[in-house]
């Protein structure tokens, strides 16, 4: 019975979300996945016996609570645990600690700069205001500004109305904010370099830009607009690793009668008379369906699995030039014990949450310089988390696993292709740096998985290893994502849609792209909408 | 010296676990329970709540009232006092009970531990020695002893709790079934462990002489170091018990003996605890009133609600339509549940309105301005939090 209402290509979290909502609406849905496991970049993998790595994405904050609740993901085993502790190490030997408790947080900032401690209130208020506005757009389809369809006009009016609510001065500031660099934006508030650098790191994560590059202030916002249980800016861990999110979503797909097939990579989207009619798998098997939804990134979708002759030349060109540059690597480490870090209080609320090896604005920019020259940073920015200190399910008792996100690491090296030797050398750069802050660290390493953008592209399927399925710069945001004129999840081939992070609202484990695409598909099929509205309209 | 302290009589007692808990209470967040100094939370209430759901955590239940009721008449006396029938109860089992006035109004709830054929322990939230003495009327072979200060007790709750006890060397703990009790030698004394708790999760309660309390604490925390053990206080308890759907005095019910206004107390049927009332046994306190109540149906019924939106419906009135004209009840406890990802509440709703629409008029504040909104409520037939590990024997390690 090879006939389905919908085929979703790629069982990443957005593909699964999309399938869950289509299945919930009564469609006969199949998700096809090239790997032998589901989850895409939200996975938990036992790569060393006893240790379960979230070997791509590793923390969660963007997951739309309304979707989590609506799809009963808790009942499918998902629990998101907020973690405490966030330390930023400076090159000058200082450590800046973030606390949840307001009084303690203030005192800690004051220790570094009394002026900045006060400025933080203004900064947080402004950022929260910006976040509130953008959060309202997450579970909505971006309007087409060139269209006069009532729905687009209505949606534009909605945005205009919400924007006006900010107030006059804040409107000017917001527009300015969107095009600024993270460093310039932070200069408006703070004087202390480590405080600025610590926050600027949110502006570069997953992005092939530096802290001084225009546009990085939005990326900063993108990383702080999530929440855990309404605490905006908080981050959490999925119990059991990020794969718990995918497993719960897969559970929701199956609960509603959807089907998931692994080891089923798609070779080509089948098109007849300008309409998608199914897919051909790498095995040669063909699956027919009324609609085809791609959860792959825009570049991969239109240059790899769609025949160039089935799409307008312009789309092919746009896909080829889609900005999806890999900039980060990942080093997952199994440890024989809990590492100790220098210069911070040795208490369990601090020394095992996020440990960021930040340096300074200068160091961050120099790290970017390496990327531009086709080298990995010799003194990289590292964002580390030790999930096993919070989650009893991911490492044996007393042992730990440490997730390290490294920026920068280029998808292509100036001195020739990536080799296993170069990859390992990159890994050594990382543990050498950690060792500086945690003497004895190297001796605790039991197993290590090093992933450069090259591995991430090969294994996960993200072009150039870009974690967002396309950079989050204003030319590729909202109604420009993935391409101007194609932001409403419909693609130039009829009955073909996109639902991945290449679409609005972009990267992060939010499930929003997949849900938004499902809403548009159901609209076209004249089916009742199953996607809930967002839950945060009162904040 | 206490004689020099003019406030000696006003100071709160300290639990035998206090020396350890005092060090861990980094925020000096203390309250009081039954005369004991008692932690509201230790470092971060939400984190402690997540320890209950994610790792394991301890809660000092020493301030709970504990009574030994022993003698040949003990069973009969208890059976006359409480609404449930404990005559067939095996030794080394625990059961949840309530007791009522002659009018069938709830005095308190608690647990009965059957320690041997003629020895029971009753635990409850507030002191009830006066009621016990009154209930003992006519029984000759009976001894009631308040052992509240003679037993230190610690609740260990959460998915890794069994693994921690195993790691501590408690033999066979994984075979202990829910509501079972086992006795172990500990440091020259006796340690009782019951598989009970107030969180709806896998968990145990540990009972020991006060002189061994610190040794128990140290052994438990040494064993739990790699299993995320952490103390929790009143705030996290209240979150966990609401998810589990358990009632609290002063929230869901007003203890009858302390109630001033007519029928501002509750019956077990109103609290959805009809299953605790056993009419097959002969006379017990409140029997005829409760039989009448059962036949007529309770005026109110305690109901679990899943409420639209994310604003906790604390103190909200309930209505039968979005317009909020006709009041049909009130919310008793409400919260946003981080584990379930739902806006949950317990509410007293007029029984006859249970079949219709339910709307909560939720009031909240945003930067000093007050707002109100009507939110649709749906009745949840099952507890919000009921993981399979809570009932599994042997339970999983995490």
Task: Tell me what you see in this structure.
The complex is a heterodimer of chains A (539) and B (398). Chain A has helices at residues 13-24, 65-70, 102-112, 114-138, 150-164, 168-179, 182-187, 193-200, 216-224, 243-255, 298-304, 313-321, 361-372, 420-437, 453-460, 512-524; strands at residues 3-9, 29-32, 45-48, 51-53, 80-82, 86-90, 95-98, 227-228, 231-232, 236-238, 259-261, 266-272, 275-281, 286-294, 328-335, 354-359, 381-385, 400-407, 445-451, 496-498. Chain A has 539 residues and is α/β, with parallel strands linked by helices. Chain A has a domain at 3-80 and 239-322 and 472-524: FAD/NAD(P)-binding domain (3-Layer(bba) Sandwich). In chain A, strands 1, 2, 11, 12, 13, 14 and 20 form a seven-stranded mixed β-sheet that branches. Chain B has 398 residues and is an alpha+beta fold. Chain B has three domains: 9-64 and 150-244, Probable tRNA modification gtpase trme, domain 1 (Gyrase A, domain 2, 2-Layer Sandwich), CATH 3.30.1360.120; 65-146, Alpha-Beta Plaits, CATH 3.30.70; 303-385, Aminomethyltransferase beta-barrel domains (Elongation Factor Tu (Ef-tu), domain 3), CATH 2.40.30. In chain B, 18% of the residues lie in helices and 32% in strands. Chain B is built from eight helices and 19 strands. Chain B has helices at residues 18-24, 45-54, 74-81, 129-135, 161-167, 213-224, 234-244, 287-296, and strands at residues 30-33, 36-39, 56-60, 65-70, 93-100, 106-116, 119-124, 143-146, 152-157, 181-186, 189-194, 203-208, 229-231, 300-307, 317-319, 327-337, 342-350, 358-366, 369-379. In chain B, the strands form four sheets. Chain B has a six-stranded mixed β-sheet with strand order 10-11-12-9-3-13, with helices on both faces. In chain B, strands 14-17-16-15-18-19 form a six-stranded antiparallel barrel. Chain B has a five-stranded antiparallel β-sheet with strand order 5-6-7-4-8, with helices on one face. In chain B, strand 16 and strand 17 (342-350) form a beta hairpin. The radius of gyration of chain B is 22 Å and the shape is globular. At the A-B interface, helix 2 and strand 5 of A face helix 2 of B.
